[in-house]
């Protein structure tokens, strides 16, 4: 099963790119971020015409997340993170699809730092960590997928010295990411590409994509119940070079139907 995440940077403005990628890549389950559209403006029809069911949590002009599936019904289980009833941002959706729980998220950017937006980012990250701990405790097969707006290490950012003061690379944010991983989550892309320079985002300015001056901020995390089924993890980097495309590229993993057989012990 192929599970993907893609920050589309405006689902209607980039719809031709999204539909082309869906048709060519044929992911089974997709988490989308930055819909930048209210619920009534989500392009359900064209997406359904490609064979995908969808649930979405939109917001006018900003934010917005969705989950797509072509491998079975989507049973929505949560809309929004617990912990702040006054939070009006559309940043988290959760659904059971084909035997797996999918958490699709768009973590706040947090800039400028310091300031209220950065404080909100840290609070939101804490809420995610608390909720993720409960998922781990239930021993569920879970994928947490989306735009985390964090580069975990120097390997995940072009010229890290230029990003030391940015909210995406702040020590507090990177520490929060590793607190999350320490619960038992597997960073799929880094697990299968431990030493590679591999990015998921390239700015529109300064010819960043052609120079490969990017960031790795889109992640797919697997709970312990799924980690031994991880078979592949890649970035569809070429999509970033398409006309009128997002500044992110789709990221995807392949999950085997069952864990690989354990090697027989000798003797």
TrEMBL record:
Transmembrane segments: none annotated. Coiled coil: none annotated. Its cofactor is Mn(2+); Mg(2+). It holds the Pfam family Exo_endo_phos. Keywords: Hydrolase, Magnesium, Metal-binding. It comes from the Bacteria. Residues 4-248 form the Endonuclease/exonuclease/phosphatase domain. SUPFAM superfamilies: DNase I-like. Belongs to the DNA repair enzymes AP/ExoA family. This is Exodeoxyribonuclease III. It comes from Sphingobium fuliginis (strain ATCC 27551).
